[in-house]
Amino acid sequence: MAVSNSPGQRTSDVNSESILRPLRDGLGGSFRVTKFDTPALPIHAFAFAIGRFRQKTKNSTQHTVTVYARDSDIGMTQHALDRSVEILDHINTYLNYSLKSAHPKIGIVPAPNVGGYSTPGLIFLSEANLFYQDGKSPAELEEKVTFELAYQLAKLVKNKKKK
């Protein structure tokens, strides 16, 4: 699965005529290419993730939030998904401000060795700042995950308002 800071527009199989054929063959099988319609971004804000992800999606009043993780970890993302939707709804209500025009979708991706990094529409968090299981994880982790999500989502508001 490919993840970008914009919604995917079209997905196709890599065929034998593609310039990506050596990559496909080197990976030992077939794969798909997803094309994204991404607005112009400064190079430091461009981001993407490639991996064997599963996803969970939830809608807030203004946004679609998707959390991505490996099969073995997807069950630990529900807290992050629920809190992200609540935080975005609070931003929309409290600040009377919607990120929807600037960020038609918001994706959250675990990344090893990353504390937290936001780009327009795509947030990378370390697994330690993203994964939480109610009843299994320490209580202080719930607060840590919620704080990190709020911080990264608030940076999207700050970055949008600067322009």
From TrEMBL:
<protein>
    <submittedName>
        <fullName>Leucyl-cystinyl aminopeptidase</fullName>
    </submittedName>
</protein>
<dbReference type="GO" id="GO:0005615">
    <property type="term" value="C:extracellular space"/>
</dbReference>
<dbReference type="GO" id="GO:0008270">
    <property type="term" value="F:zinc ion binding"/>
</dbReference>
<dbReference type="GO" id="GO:0005737">
    <property type="term" value="C:cytoplasm"/>
</dbReference>
<dbReference type="GO" id="GO:0042277">
    <property type="term" value="F:peptide binding"/>
</dbReference>
<keyword id="KW-0378">Hydrolase</keyword>
<keyword id="KW-0031">Aminopeptidase</keyword>
<dbReference type="InterPro" id="IPR027268">
    <property type="entry name" value="Peptidase_M4/M1_CTD_sf"/>
</dbReference>
<dbReference type="GO" id="GO:0070006">
    <property type="term" value="F:metalloaminopeptidase activity"/>
</dbReference>
<dbReference type="InterPro" id="IPR050344">
    <property type="entry name" value="Peptidase_M1_aminopeptidases"/>
</dbReference>
<dbReference type="GO" id="GO:0016020">
    <property type="term" value="C:membrane"/>
</dbReference>
<dbReference type="GO" id="GO:0006508">
    <property type="term" value="P:proteolysis"/>
</dbReference>
<dbReference type="GO" id="GO:0043171">
    <property type="term" value="P:peptide catabolic process"/>
</dbReference>
<keyword id="KW-0645">Protease</keyword>
